[in-house]
């Protein structure tokens, strides 16, 4: 759930702490927006590092910021669907490597009283808010 709310805030804070990030969200557009914010943080940190080490960049004409291994990867994933989680996890293993820290904060909030909630929404809530934690882990 990196596309908004707490997930976005966690992503930005981990970026400030120089983490390589793998962002999942069901919403591709908002996930990409978060990735853009993360990349902005990475660029700012690289510029600060370059400013702190004058004369390292080059000849002045083709100055390049110091190489920084900070990257962000985005994946569209519906964590409420077990097979989608497993397929996305396998892609991450192949494309990025093993994950060392997992923050799973995706969640569904219906805003309805239980007795007014349609069965489909109750099932979706349980899949995302409960079962997904097992599948993602």
TrEMBL record:
GO terms for cellular component: lipid droplet. The keyword Oxidoreductase applies. SUPFAM superfamilies: NAD(P)-binding Rossmann-fold domains. Keywords: Oxidoreductase. It comes from the Eukaryota. The keyword Oxidoreductase applies. GO terms for molecular function: oxidoreductase activity, acting on the CH-OH group of donors, NAD or NADP as acceptor. Belongs to the short-chain dehydrogenases/reductases (SDR) family. This is RDH10 dehydrogenase. It comes from Lanius ludovicianus (Loggerhead shrike). The gene is Rdh10.
